[in-house]
Amino acid sequence: MESLLSTSSTALFTAFILYLVATLFFGATIKDKTSDKSKTGFAGKLAISLTIIGFIAQLTYFVTRWMASGHAPVSNLFEFTTFLGMCLVFAFIIIYFIYKLSVLGLFALPVAMIIIAYASMFSREISPLVPSLQSHWLAIHVSTVALGQGILFISFVAGLIYLIRQVDQSVRSARTIALEFVIYSLFLFIGFIVSSSVFNAMGYSASFDYPLNDKTVTTEYTMPAIAGPYDGTLTTEGVMEPWFQTPEWMHGADAGRKFNTVVWSLLVGSVLYGLIRLILRKRVGAAIQPLLKNVKPDLVDEINYRSVAIGFPVFTLGGLIFASIWAQIAWDRFWGWDPKEVWALITWFFYAAYLHLRLSRGWHGEKSAWLAVVGFGIIMFNLIVVNLVLAGLHSYA
Amino acid sequence: MNHIKCECGHVNPEGTVLCEACGKPIEMNQHIDGNDKKKLLNMRYEGSARRSKTYNKTIIDKIWNFFSSVKVGVWLIVIALVASGIGTIFPQEQYIPSTAVSRDPQIYYPETFGILGKIYYQLGFHNLYSSWWYLLLIALIGISLVICSLDRFVPLYKALKRQKAKRHESFINRQRFYSKTESVEQGDIESVKESLRKQRYKVKEEDGHLVAEKGRFSRWGPYVNHIGLIIILLAALLRTTPLLYLDDYVWVREGELKVIPGTDGEYYIENKEFILETYDQEDERFKEAIAKEGIVPSNFQSNVIIYKSGDSEVLGAETDLEKVTEDEIRMNYPLKFDGYALYQQGYQLNEFANMTFKIYEMNDPDAEALGEFTIDLYNMKHEYKLDNGYKVVVAEYYPDYKLTEDGVKSETNDSNNPAFVFNLYPPESEDYEISFVGDVIGAAEDLGIDTTVVELQPMGNVVGTFAPSIDPTGENQYRILIDSIDFDRKSGLTVRKDYTLPVFGFGAIIFMIGVIQGMYWQHRRIWIQRKGDGVLLAGHTNKNWFGLKKDIEKAIDGTAINMVEDQNEEE
Ligand code: HEM
Predict the structure, then answer these.
(1) Name one Pfam family in it (chain A) (predicted).
(2) Which ranges of A100-235 would DSSP assign to H, the alpha helix?
């Protein structure tokens, strides 16, 4: 048991490191001058091999954790988000073998790494399954949804590459600002990961008492409180006093702690982004652009569409059809307008709109790329905001 | 109708953009697909004559054209998407938590979310998904879907059926993939043909001109998936009829036999036992998580027997019950019988069942009981006569007592927190004393016990003695105290009968077939036209140009034919 679990975490860590190394090699392929696409250079071959080994390592994590816990490891936020990262890597491997486009790896793997690192900030204990989750449909439904989302993420990756390659960086415009904003948002994730890890390593802890539904409850902050709970009192001595209170309208258990985490992520992410900007002395997008001049925008655009074409049916099957079947079995209704369900529907509507706009209104190239970015935003919203803030029946946290 | 005759001899319907047979652009109609402004031809619908692009005179034309516009369709989808999102900002009415200040939406939203909550409520967003305008939106999407599909499917189908291998040159050289080779031997063409057949293309020939085609069926994908969606919408419509759909709820206590609501007295249920199990705190796998997050339930289960009432004269006579099945109902494992399904939905462990009270003399230091009586809360009598002559009349009863700003009330009709106003008649007396007894939960909370977490059963007995026994006049000689409480465990089961499920399932399957058909296959065509000694080569696919390019590369490999250019890139 213990050994299985430790194998499992080692495997996950190994996978992470391998993805990191693979990213570096994908980076090295950028310099490849070979115009013949069908010949992949040595760096490219090494990079994709490392990615595959990394994927196998992550699969090992998955299987051993399943054996240790006795249920599919997709039952809490850590497990689900890690699995989502794994699905992104899997989707990338498939698309790579169709199109042999190395630059895709240079962007897909870091996104996967950010997602996996983000996952590991949540509590990693094996949690027992509550009765509503004790069903084979847990594995069937969740793995299909995550796979669909992983494939759709590739369209985001392709869209991002397209935009960095194509958006005119010589003048400041709404498009350069929007693109920088997308890149900046990725920095916020890094901000979250850095601040959580640092304070975690320091073992920081501070307790607050605060009123919730006419009762006084205690919450434990693992990061210094910039924003304290509304009407809360600090009960730990010798730690930083909050600078301000979480606004009253943010309701629910632990609203203060969650808001504080958001504040820290914003802060650290912005500082990191600011530093990079200072070093580069230009927009991050503008700095990456020259690296992508060998990339064919048409091909990237096609990958963007193709991944939606492949991912949309998978997502529909997992996120709407399997979801409904399970909801019917577990909760006696296949559809209940629970926030999580509604956001799955929104995602589905959105990609349906993407397809129709592309097909019938000729939204190709840049427009499609922007839509892919928005689609990614919607899925991440479902993962983060809906789980942590709107949370209904499906709440993991 | 004004038919249009093409120079190739084919007669096309009015509104045709590209001749159905040879593809030659029909001059007067080029604006319809925007071909007049572009080098490449718009191949979306093969230049077929769609009603929406041809007629726009009568009101019917206008309605048809409105709904067959994809722009309108996408707008409808986007509006539905945004509205759905707004509906998740605050909980919907059915998800107002039981811990909320009030379950009355009029109070809940403004109290909890302030001014925004008030607006949310007043605009009806608390019940968004069953509001008339949301349903209208979904219906409009449905109508748009049908009209849009009909508008395109029929002409597209005809055009593809009538296409010929021999094409007009202006059709070929305005395709996205195009090449021209000055001199090609017949042998090369044969080899290309062979290679295309190997790649599973269907090759048709006409006067030495070729068209190789594969995956045409994928063009029907969108129409198939739209049909699936329509079936799902129809199922949702069917579901509103009570004939096909039943949704009811029943609470059964342990040991109780009860008619199942919604079955017209035909079926009965007996709850033999309700089981609640939790994970072992010592379980090696889970102990860390449990230590952190608290006890986790592992099973909710009702062991039940289902009976059917016999053909007795009086329907529902309990004497004539015939056992249908005996089974367990657990979460994720509903019980199904004769078209009905029972789901484990809720449970209540601390429902008050029997309460025993004792009467004491006020301020009696020895606390010696003068008498006792027991009230069965499910079968309450109006008055209780004690052996030694005392008589207690139940003047008021609040099964679920709550003291609010507006006075006392009973929150529900379930005995979750009983409270009584008793009139106590001492032996041989016509006069009575009034006392108030009960509100165990309130007493527990006053002691700082969180009754929502605590297992009340043993606690109830301790707390019971602290429960208020209030003497409203201040002149009472006696007081009545709770001595012991029996709790009941009851199981909440939803009763469902849903004949629309197979229809939903059927729609979903059709939808999946349609999307997969349209997304995982593509309709690819390659034309090879003889021109003098050379050939013109063109290719078209509805998606995945990369794949088509590879097919062409493979087909012309080793021949003199030039590889196609992507004329899109040149632009
Ligand atoms: C949420 C509801 C809808 C879904 C899930 C849906 C799904 C789809 C899908 C998956 C495709 C194929 C796209 C592709 O191959 O890239 C498609 C095509 C299409 N849809 Fe829809 N659709 C929906 C609503 C509508 C509506 C309301 C309209 C009417 C305006 C419409 C009109 C079309 C048209 C015209 C096509 C293109 C057919 C073709 O060009 O071959 N759809 N739809």
Answers:
(1) Cytochrom_C_asm
(2) 102-119, 136-166, 174-202
